[in-house]
Specification:
This protein is an alpha+beta fold and about 425 residues long. Helix content is about 25%, strand content about 50%. It has a 23-stranded antiparallel beta sheet that branches. A hairpin with a 6-residue loop joins strand 7 and strand 8. It holds the Pfam family DUF945.
């Protein structure tokens, strides 16, 4: 009998949790959504999320809102309405977003069978999954002969750690744009990105983006084709989390122009030893300056000018902080294939770390910068392209470019506020 009572109590507890859970999940989901909109609006200036009419029930909710996108050049705002239905479960909710009903006829014309689908699945423990699917599209303008065909595309973002970690995936099998005098085709676009928040506006992670082929064919121009384009990037930090290193490598397996192919091409960019605190201050100041520029048309011009001056002062202080801790950046590898031979190069700049006494005496960043420059290209490339030859000829005459056999070479060093290019000294003004 005692055991039976215990099972009855346990069953009642489970039933109570099951009954209470959807209401609790709904309450938490509403708070999470409000928190997300606030964070999005505060973290960037390009668009704002507005939520209105959030009607929460027991098993679900409905709400509507507006996305306000601001043109970064003109400051003009464009508004797009949306609506969402929310289903509450025991441990999480599912949000299904859709455009307002008045757009139905326009969507039916573009997507006659299946509509685009955007969902957000949230969990009580702070994880979320965004999924966005766009069905295949096939459009044709009978009057102009223009057409657009696109394969079904898909995007997903898995967010965890209350927004501090994310895994992003985008798949776009391809699209074709046709016009009477033009054809553009894209094949197999893929993006994978992992992100981990370090502090402030500083994120770590790695990413891979690839595009199998991009082809542009015009009636009056030679056809262009780019095969196997890829970008790989990684940003890491040491155990202490006080500095970050980053590397990005861009590769192109082959480029074809007018039935002539050449490749591969490769370019690497790195920065090492960036002080996290100063880098965060720099990115924050740049963001604030951008916000001030966007608000300049609607706000007080004096206030905007004052904000931009303050941002410039913060940028200067951040650059001095970066320099004091020491860093290096540049292109350690530049390699481009041409029909006449490879173009190779390296460009690197570095700044030493400073003692406390040296930091107090430092007035500008440029003074302690050093670096090296080396670029080599085939002479035949210049000879076969007159427009390039007109630009290089004066540099050869001045001794900035030297000929070594069948190649042209540029070598330079940066030190003591001067750039030495093949023995020609060029004084440089201070940057900060």
């Amino acid at each position: 009998m005692q055991l039976k009572k215990q099972w009855m109590v346990a069953g009642a507890a489970v039933l109570a949790v099951g009954v209470f859970a959807p209401w609790a999940v709904g309450y938490v989901t509403e708070q999470q959504w409000q928190s997300v909109t606030t964070e999005v609006n505060q973290s960037q200036p390009l668009f704002q999320l507005e939520t209105r009419d959030y009607n929460r029930g027991y098993m679900g909710a409905e709400f509507s809102g507006t996305i306000i996108v601001q043109d970064p050049e003109t400051g003009e705002e464009h508004e797009f309405d949306y609506q969402a239905r929310v289903s509450h479960g025991v441990t999480g909710s599912l949000m299904d977003f859709s455009p307002p009903g008045e757009l139905g006829s326009q969507l039916d014309r573009i997507f006659p069978d299946e509509k685009p689908k955007l969902t957000l699945e949230t969990r009580l423990w702070g994880t979320a999954i965004f999924e966005f699917t766009v069905p295949a599209v096939s459009l044709i303008d009978e009057e102009t002969g223009e057409s657009f065909d696109m394969s079904e595309s898909y995007a997903r973002a898995d967010i965890s750690g209350n927004g501090s970690q994310a895994d992003i995936l985008m798949l776009w099998p391809g699209a074709v744009i046709r016009a009477p005098d033009l054809r553009i085709s894209i094949e197999d676009f893929r993006l994978e990105q992992t992100l981990e928040h370090l502090t402030g506006e500083v994120w770590l992670g790695n990413g891979d983006m690839s595009l199998s082929r991009l082809e542009v064919a015009s009636r009056h121009e030679p056809a262009l084709r780019f095969d196997q384009f890829a970008i790989k990037s990684e940003t890491t930090t040491g155990d202490d989390g006080k500095s970050i290193d980053s590397e990005a490598v861009v590769t192109l397996e082959k480029m074809t122009a007018d039935d002539e192919s050449f490749g591969p091409h490769r370019m690497a960019f790195v920065f090492n030893g960036l002080d996290v605190e100063s880098w965060n201050d720099l990115t924050s100041a740049l963001t604030d300056m951008q916000v001030a520029a966007l608000n300049s048309k609607a706000g007080d011009s004096r206030a905007v000018m004052q904000q931009q001056m303050e941002s410039m002062s913060r940028i200067n202080e951040a650059m001095l902080g970066l320099a004091a801790e020491g860093f290096s950046f540049g292109f350690p590898e530049l390699s481009f294939a041409t029909p006449y031979g490879p173009v190779n190069g390296e460009i690197m700049v570095q700044h030493p770390s400073l003692s406390d006494e040296e930091r107090d005496q430092m007035m500008m960043v440029m003074q302690r910068l050093s670096g090296n420059l080396e670029v080599s290209m085939p002479l035949a490339l210049v000879e076969q392209h007159p427009e390039l030859g007109m630009q290089v000829a004066p540099l050869i005459k001045q001794g900035m470019v030297e000929q070594e056999g069948d190649r042209l070479r540029v070598q330079g060093t940066l030190e003591d506020l001067a750039l030495d290019v093949n023995g020609n000294l060029i004084p440089l003004p201070p940057l900060f």
